[in-house]
Amino acid sequence: MSTDQNQIAPNAQPMIDIVGLNKWFGPFHVLRDINLSVAPRERIVICGPSGSGKSTLIRCINRLEEHQQGSIVVDGTELTHDLKNIDAIRREVGMVFQQFNLFPHLSVLENCTLGPIWVRKTPKRDAEKLAMELLERVKIPEQADKYPGQLSGGQQQRVAIARSLCMQPNIMLFDEPTSALDPEMIKEVLDVMVDLAETGMTMIVVTHEMGFAAQVADRVIFMDAGQIVEQNTPDEFFNNPQSDRTKLFLSQIL
Amino acid sequence: MTSSPFFRQPNDMLPERAPPVAMSGIIGWLRANLFSGWLNTGLTLFALYALWLIIPGLLNWAFFDADFAGTDRFACTGTGACWAWFDQRIDQFLYGFYPDEQTWRVNLALFLILPALAPILFDKMPGAKQLRWFSLAFPFVATFLLIGGFGLEEVPTNKFGGFMLNVTVGLAGIVLSLPIGIVLALGRRSKMPIVRTLSVAFIEVFRGVPLITLLFVAAILLPIFLPSSFSLDLVVRVIVVVTAFASAYMAEVIRGGLQAIPRGQYEAAQALGLGYWRMMGLIILPQALKISIPGIVNTFIGLFKDTTLVIVIGLFDVLNIGRTMISNPDWLGLAVETQVFISLFFFVVCFSMSRYSVYLEQRLDTSKH
């Protein structure tokens, strides 16, 4: 295993800087000595078997999970118990969940404008205009007045992406965004994510879609048993894996 | 039979067709719901027979054989009900001992409930936003109208009685117990130990004690405990106790709703940067309250009917007025008639609440295609 896990990161002020991160669920050591630095505009794909801690890792970045050791600095702000810092970071970090987690009692448009209106204090008209632009970008402006329960899974996930983008974040976290979707709908969500990657958004994506990783990732990280086992460019990662654990994983999913 | 390979081109996919007639229409409905089998057919016929036995007798008693006029029960000579008291005593049933020349104030307060409730019950109606200010002011307007002062003749609350007392206590309890119940439910789920302990203690104490006991405490014990300079009106004490009792139930109903909200809703709200109160107010509570509607209305209905328990501390609510009347020699023994009349009143109010909750559930249902 490489001792310098950040050797590939470009030499810029990192967007996310994670040093010596450890986390436990009760006695279970779920994240072990994670060091990860993400440069602005960098696109990272994290993969690994279930239970390897990859979701927990990105949920630590916006404090949906609390870490016990180490430091996480997001865009210059360190995550501590200080609620102000947590709020500031959550404003800058968008997140898309496996189960979409749209608000079922609000229309698609209201889902998108809620954050800007209540957190960013954007006037309602501006928020709606922005929301319509972003719904256009995820290719479902015609569903704006419907409720989430009336949409297909793929449409819901695209609304969830638009909802996050409405907060105009600097970083987007994706937690297995296509794992709950029917095969025919995975592509429409991945297309939106590829578009987003091309705009230069900093992205961390936990996914098993290796085609997506090969197409857009700057770096692929493989995790197992709460630690980073291997990280490399997609090309090297898929064609020339070093760790035996990585080789086993790739042989099973490809 | 052999199966041969088969395919369909997009242009010869099957079109949508209407369901067969036997599935729809009146005949279809009857067949599916009332005569779907031997057992169902038998039950339907039995129910029709029972109705045929009961309804004519009931109508005869209540209307055709009943007496409607007279100044005492001896004017009633028919075999049916005696409604002669109605004309004589209806004012007492409605207003208790409220001064006759002032009863317009009760009527006005009752009438003003309509514009006060309308913008809350039907939030899509035109002008709802402006009217909502009136809804906020209504409790004060109604209190002023009923009690008086500021130029209106003062009416002490011991003159309150009849339906008017039930409605006053019931409405005040309903309006207050919902917000208090929400606060208690949130408190019980709070991570702060003191808030949580206090909420649990409040809920368990008021839920674990019979309402009658609490009413006795309010009527007899509180005046002994409290300094004599601090005297609280009896009706106010009753409202406080009824509210506390209903709030404890309400809190548990709403806690049930809160527990049904998936964790992902909290996480999505947090990920957007919403703080605790906005997350609760905008995302969690609207959904939790929607799920809790049947339980909330259940509690409201229970509270409203429980207002008749004030009889045990000597208040003259409608039940007590009825009891007093039938112990008067003029109207002795008309228990059935008064109970039927009072029951009808409670049924109309409670059934309206129930129907409204059904309407509300349908309106808030966002899952329909």
Q: Tally of extended strands of chain B?
A: 0
Classification by helices and strands of chain B: mainly alpha
CA-based gyration radius of chain A: 18 Å
Mean pLDDT of chain B: 87
The CATH architecture of the largest domain in chain B can be given as Orthogonal Bundle
- Which strand-content bin applies to the residues of chain A? 15-25%
Oligomer: heterodimer
Largest interface: A-B, 29 and 23 residues
How do the helices and strands follow one another from N- to C-terminus of chain A? EEEHEEHEHHHEHEHEEHH
The total beta strand count of chain A reads 10
By DSSP (H or I, 4+ residues per run), the number of helices of chain A equals 9
Low-confidence stretches of chain B: none
User: How far apart lie the N and C ends of chain A?
Assistant: 23 Å
Q: Briefly note the CATH topology name of the largest domain in chain B.
A: MetI-like fold
Helix proportion range of chain A? 25-40%
Order of helices and strands of chain B: HHHHHHHHHHHHH
User: Counting H and I runs of at least 4 residues, what is the number of helices of chain B?
Assistant: 13
- Strand arrangement within the widest β-sheet of chain A reads 6-7-8-3-9-10
CATH superfamily of the largest domain in chain B: MetI-like
Structural class of chain A: alpha/beta
| Mean pLDDT reading of chain A | 90
What does this protein look like?
The complex is a heterodimer of chains A (254) and B (369). Chain A is α/β, with parallel strands linked by helices and 254 residues long. Chain A has helices at residues 54-61, 83-92, 108-118, 124-137, 153-165, 183-198, 210-216, 234-239, 244-253; strands at 16-25, 28-38, 43-47, 69-74, 77-78, 93-96, 171-175, 202-206, 219-224, 227-232. Chain A contains nine helices and ten strands. In chain A, helix 3 packs parallel to helix 5 (153-165) and helix 4 packs across helix 5 (153-165). Chain A is globular, with a radius of gyration of 18 Å. Mean pLDDT of chain A is 90; it is low at 1-10. With 369 residues, chain B is mainly alpha-helical. Chain B has 13 helices and no strands. Chain B has helices spanning 25-33, 38-64, 84-95, 103-121, 128-147, 162-188, 193-207, 211-225, 234-259, 263-271, 276-306, 318-326, 335-364. The radius of gyration of chain B is 27 Å and the shape is globular. Chain B starts with 24 loop residues before the first helix and ends in a 5-residue tail after the last helix. The relative contact order of chain B is 0.09. Chains A and B meet through helix 2, strand 6, helix 3 and helix 5 of A and helix 10 and helix 11 of B.
